[in-house]
User: Which sequence fits this backbone?
């Protein structure tokens, strides 16, 4: 898994028909890189997220062939994370 932070949305006037409902988000990874990830959760700019890639991401969409290589699978609750460290 990859940890990152949402830095913006990718807007598109046209999409492939097999794409499910959700948004394409630009994410800055903890390693300093950027990637585009599909978001079925409704995450916002500034939110810390967990991402999976490859066949695991594409396999999430059972019954559909979705051209997705990076998928947001979790939103990190940073407030709870800070409390657990104390």
Assistant:
């Amino acid at each position: 898994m990859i940890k990152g932070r949402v830095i913006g949305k990718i807007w598109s006037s046209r999409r492939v028909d097999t794409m499910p409902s959700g948004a394409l988000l630009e994410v800055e990874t903890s390693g300093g890189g950027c990637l585009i990830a599909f978001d079925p959760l409704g995450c916002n700019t500034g939110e810390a997220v967990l991402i999976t890639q490859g066949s695991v991401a594409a396999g999430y969409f059972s019954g559909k062939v979705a051209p997705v290589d990076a998928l947001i699978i979790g939103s990190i609750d940073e407030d709870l994370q800070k409390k657990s460290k104390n």
The two ends are 25 Å apart (CA to CA). The helical segments are 55-59, 78-85. Strands lie at 2-10, 23-29, 34-39, 48-53, 70-75.
